[in-house]
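**Polypeptide and fold**
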Amino acid sequence: MASDEPLLVSHQDAQNEESNAKGRDDVRRLLAQETNGKVDSDGSLDPAEDSNGADKSEDAAPARWSMREVAKLARENAAGDMACALVALVVSSGTNLALPKIMGWMVDLVVARGPGASGSVGGSQLLENTTASGRPSVAQAAWAALGVFAAGAVGSIARVFFLSSAETKIARRLRVDLYRATLQYGPVEQDANAVISCLAQDAEDLSKSICKNIASLYRGCNSAFGGAAMLCYISPQLTMVSLSLLPMIGSGAFAFSRFSRRIAKSVKEDTRNAVARAGERVQQLATVRMFNGEKREVERFASALDGLCGRAGRAALAEGLFMGGLGFSLNASLLAVVCYGGRLVAAGSMTGGQLASFAMYSGLMGLGFGQLGSAYSDFSRSLGASQRLKALLADMPASGSTPTPRPEGDAIAQQILDPVLRFENVHFAYAANPDKEILRGLDLTLEPGKVVCIAGRSGVGKSTLSKLIMRVEQDWQGQITLDGRDIREIPLTAYRTLLSAVDQRPALFTDLTIAENIAFSRPGASEDEVREAARMAEAFEFIEALPDGFASIVGGGPKSVQLSVGQAQRIALARAFLRRARVYIFDEHSSSLDHRAEQDVQRSVRGLAARGCAVVVIAHRASMLEAADHIVVLENGAVAEQGTFADLLAKPDGPFRDLLSSLRQRSD
């Protein structure tokens, strides 16, 4: 995987506008309908078979998290913490459930009289160990209550600790899986801003929602159903009065949760698209200023945010109406309990302490159902807002499908002795435009031991050819073989150990030193090997001249060095040379080098071919054609002609002469 990472990174800029347009279309479609689609349980894409994950996910219904998936995620990554948190929840929720009973008991103790006694109990008598009737005193009841409260406090402390630990572990798993899915299995042309947002925020939001709402759901269930059970135990008759408003509360909570889920999803998607658009304009700031687009872009960004504010306001109004209605319903229910319960106390059907307990249990039950509704709404909202995270994780292989083990894959790769690349009747069209074929029945053999130059005008499929070789794109028709073996039959990770590449815009990693950037293609390479690769790429001298030499950090930080485009290109070349691959692909690899450096690099490239490697060069300049051993001219998605430079130049009416003339005019 490491060898073609720079190439994978570098194609993003060319696709930003198209990706943003697709994203805006997706959001409009999402806002037009409520989506309940799911990814099939086995819908993960196999990295060696799928080539079109991004487009499939766009056309299909957005993936949503199911409760089963959420439970599995918590169980697999934080089972111990969740179990301990559950025990702590039982303790803390149990104390909450015991509180009304204790308070009612204490009320009855305060107002109780001895057999046949009249008048209220004196203050000093309340503090005695026992009352005249032999019942516990208020002091004893208070000490018992304090013991229960202390147990509840310990349970709350343990609950917070273990849920926080579980939240951290779940977020870690989500981030690692997302990063793995993005690097190993995700499409190359994807929205980097969306991935970063999911890594930074969505994973944390989902993990917090899982842990917080699992606790809220349990507490809500305990309060609601435990409270209802205690109501029935104290007074079944009064319970019917207390539960009269329950259906209305439940239906309101359900309707609000559906509405909030839709709003949260649309707000998050629109926010992400607005920020992505703003980020692109900042990256292209010179172009924006050149055409006086500052005011226009600010107004467009403000307009997008105004729409978001409007939807957020509607969501807040709906939440306010729901919470206000819930509070009114609970208070009305409590008022009915007090009025009707007072009649029962007067009739001797229940004691004052029982009425106090009933009123508290009634409020506790109402709060429990409200907590259930709020937790369900919050859970639904967070799951809906995390659809992008789910869609990105959908590129992971299904749990039932395991990739070829690395040792076996390496053994298959080692069987490639003669790296002859053959294209046999290859047809290919990008998924974004399936009706426009880039390659049309391509038949081509690329032999090792030669520097083979792929030439042609813009759009004929030169870079597409390199993508197919690297299996960046895989949805082609026909057959591509390496040493007689279909390249799609070779495990992807093992196959890429055979490849090395340099793109038109090579990317360097700004948190690594120059030596680490070079060694990225082959971790574990010795210092001498890294230096030798730098010499082959004509990078050794300028690296050694830096204050920290090979230990210099690349990037724009205070302790980093600024490199020119040509210097960055040489480091990328050194990284490719260090790979020890069987197939090398160079796409405009020397465009920023001076003539002398280019000649030196060409000698190193020839040295790779002399070692029996297949060397494919995508030509954009006449000098590359002149240095090639074999030239393949593409036209209309197929081979128009091929041969040596001299042979093709000798054909007066061939497409090569016209191409060479245009390249020379452009270079002049």
Remarks:
- Confidence is low (pLDDT under 50) at residues 1-62, 113-124, 398-404.
- The longest helix spans residues 294-346.
- The two ends are 39 Å apart (CA to CA).
- The domain at 53-393 is CATH 1.20.1560.10 (ABC transporter transmembrane region fold).
